[in-house]
Amino acid sequence: MGTSAATVRSSSSVYGTPQYWERLWRTAGLQFLGLFIIAYLIYGYQPHVGASADTLVTFYQGGRIRVFFAAALGGLALLNLMWFAAALRTTLADAGQDGWGAAATTSSAAFAGLSLLLIAVSATLAYSTSGPATPALLSGFNDFLWVGVVLSSFPRAMLTMAAAFGLWRAGLISNRLFGIGVAAVVLGLLGGTTWLSHGLWAPDGAYSRFVSPAVGLLWVAVVSRVLLARGPATRTGW
To answer: What is the DSSP letter of 15?
Structure first.
């Protein structure tokens, strides 16, 4: 009797329906955008490659609470990004594009794993620089963070490609939006070539720091709009 009543209450609640959860995860891309931007602003201006030990200690030790808050928000942002990829995958699977859906899942997991590693290194530097620190060690880890940002361009480009080609093959976006997606893929891949010593095309240059991330964020917003425009599926997988 009690179990039956609980089942009825669960089935009659909007929060117990697959449609509610599916729509919730389709908004995960927008939640990722909000959390990422807030974390980015809180984190502040990452010291450039080859920054002095004093600059690094000031950034990580002087702003350690700021770094910790940004790390927590960054982790939440990545969780929402993976839920966004899951919603994208189910949408593509419903349209018979399982291969592109699997590519979205794989690339989001690779990007999230690398990003969590970079967040962990940054938080470790903030946590451990409360005492004497070796300048070479600080500089090496800070440079590692920038190298990780450059290399993260590849899984980001793969996620962009999976969404663009998968949604286009499924007939869910126009040729114009597909062209924008292809351009976003190319711009994302170019982020993996920013190896000059200094300037625009350096690991800590304006392209890696601003342009490449902005392109990825805008494409997530576009795909989120496409996902939200579709009606909830009838599946019970959520």
So the answer is: G
